[in-house]
Known about the structure:
Strand order of the largest sheet: 4-10-9-8-7-5-6
Number of helices: 17
Distance between the termini: 48 Å
Number of domains: 2
Structural class: alpha/beta
CATH class of the largest domain: Alpha Beta
Largest sheet: 7 strands, mixed
CATH architecture of the largest domain: 3-Layer(aba) Sandwich
Bound molecules: pyridoxal-5'-phosphate
Shape: globular
Amino acid sequence: MKTTKEIQAIDSAHYLHPFTDHKSLAEKGARIITKSEGIYIWDSHGEKILDAMSGLWCVNIGYGRQKLVDAAAKQMQELPYYNSFFQTTNVPAVKLAERIVKLAGDNYSHVFFSSSGSESNDTNIRMVRHYWATLGQPERKVIISRKNAYHGSTMAGASLGGMSYMHEQGGLPIPDIVHIEQPYHYGLAPTQDKDAFGIEAAGWLEQKILEVGPEKIAAFIGEPVQGAGGVIIPPKTYWPEIQRICDKYNILLICDEVICGFGRLGYWFGSQLLGCKPDLMTFAKGVTSGYIPLGGVVIGKKVAKVLIEQGGDFNHGYTYSGHPVACAVALANIDILEHEGLVDNVRNETGPYLAQRFAELTHHPLVGNAESCGLVAGLALMKDKAKHIAFDELLGVGMMCRNHCFSNGLIMRAVGDRMIIAPPLVITKAQIDDMMHLINKCLDATLDELQALGLMHA
Ligand SMILES: *Cc1c(COP(=O)(O)O)cnc(C)c1O
């Protein structure tokens, strides 16, 4: 076994990490995660860390679940791989498609499989344009998305996404994708009535439709609750109004459920909570709790019918579409979510408990607002919350707080000056208390540092 320093040296010599500034990583050395159990991970120094981000929003059933290991091993022995391209299929993919359609509800009939959220959103773009072309309206190409949205990192995924720092590299966005502002009440209009703001924010979609021309628009895409954009929880009026506008102009609605799906909000899909009926739903992450890559699109009956009855060949697919091992793991994951009642538990027990405990953070001098939905939560670090004054972005206060979390055994993510969490759905109320204790400790440490630097008054 090599030492931590040796592994770090090889890491920086040969492993190009995603979303990473390599020069600064090489100076510090990457943290090496070596094992995991439940809601905890351990690093190579043996330090135990509470993973309040479920990896990257995906380890819904927690770490160390033997059933998933067994399901993968068994499927690998029987049939490790076969494709579904040339009129063939495999049993785990068939079973999983049926199971996901049942969870999605009456509106849906089919599932298309990929290996990630990004690929699934690529599929969405091609599918909705093919849908409209099949219906004799090929000019319906434009997809409306939102600023700060995250829809993945491929050319299409990052184009749909609204991260300006991603658009700066690689010639993005690709043509015919436009963005509207996100429904961030606290950030954009904190004094406005929340429900009224929700209606207004949905109205930005209608404005954009009229500006572009309804006859050119294929679809609107949004995350039910925006995740990587900072856990932006929309007012309850927002999604029903978005649905009304999509219906009015006959525009397809795509919900990117990659984070919200599979129990995160206390429902199988986030749209079931937030009051809309998307034509297509993107999933990935929680479908296998991250144990193995799998993603896909749940397809509503309206779209499926056109594709199947009139669409002919859909010239699109991935080598690993319907991968039998990934699908077998997903089935075992859904078994656990069901048998342990985890989705109901988030809805009725741990979600409401987190909401209550997380809201208490607004008593902290640094915290402007703190809100959760199911088991995702976000808070805004503010310089002067009474006057609604944010910190200078260049100070990197969120990063400062994240570093305190790192050194105190807690994974919490910073998005600018918003601190966000999405703990595994297996977290107990007692563990939520432990997590809140750590969060408070890290906020205190951040406040101390800001005061020591003279950036905030005592
Ligand atoms: C993570 C994420 C994606 C991208 O998924 P990958 O598997 O990383 O390609 C897409 N949409 C949302 C909402 C996500 O959170």
